[in-house]
Amino acid sequence: MTTAPTRLAFAAVAAVAAIGLAGCSTPGDASAESAGAYPLTIDNCGTELTIESEPETILTIGTSAVSLLDAAGASDRIIARSGEFGAELPDGLENPPTDAEIVDPSDPTTEKIVGAGADIVVGYGLFNSTDDDLAAAGITNIVIDGECSHDAALSDPTDFDAIFADVERLATVFGTTDAADARLTELRAELTELESSVPADAERETAAVVYYFSSSSTLSARGGQGIANDILDRAGFDNVYGDEPSVYLEANIETLLAADPDTIVIAYGLYGETFDEAKAHFLSEPGAAELSAVVNDRVVGVLGGDLSPDPDAVRGFRAVLEATGRISE
């Protein structure tokens, strides 16, 4: 199977800068002992990134960046957005940046980024610009940890611990650790509650997470390196694409038929489509009607943004449990 060069508004999600840079160190690592100490050096997809002073304004690329910044207590600094591909802002944001201009619905160019006037970029990475181009304009680019290697293997898979560490990393950058600590306490408590709600005697089954990036795109799936794999595992499922060393990958109906998972999760909403629209697209695939999950009515939908490397993945975990009946009252 080959990996797909898709930009997920998984932002999510989801969710790259140094795309091609292999390996991400612990995202919370920073040279400063506490928030507010500048210059500050953080890990940015395996490279050291020094931030000279506290950033006051942000341009985001992808909705995962918005969710992470909101949890970190810094979403009120977002003045411009991009890379959302028509997806809605995540639900439940403390400070939704609804007034921030969308400078480009897809991958922003250097000109669009510079023109936005932000001090710093936070997002899934650059596809129509480079770090050097932005640095020449005095703009820093931070890549969210779960997108450090967008279509290739990360050194470590993204799980909930990595997402929470990314919130801490961003809070250090923006000097908002108190707000982040409070939000993380809530998120960790919710995650613990959800894990404890899974029946201990639940039989492990197989599942796949599939999606379409646009109405004309081919079928894609979630591999073993992303948060969707961690969600399936915690819910008691083995990801049939879990051995694939990537977050996002090209799939096809043939590989899905060969694996024949018990449950199929369709990640929808990536370009504004409803679950019914995404499911109809999937069922139009030749041979889809032969899948056990289709025959047994085990095709469920979860918002793509809730299966991204950001705090909304906790909501995605709940959605998977509820949709598959794997949550005890």
TrEMBL record:
It comes from the Bacteria. InterPro entries: ABC_Transporter_SBP, ABC_transptr_periplasmic_BD. It comes from Agromyces atrinae. Residues 1-32 form the signal peptide. Keywords: Signal. Residues 57-329 form the Fe/B12 periplasmic-binding domain. Belongs to the bacterial solute-binding protein 8 family. This is Iron complex transport system substrate-binding protein.
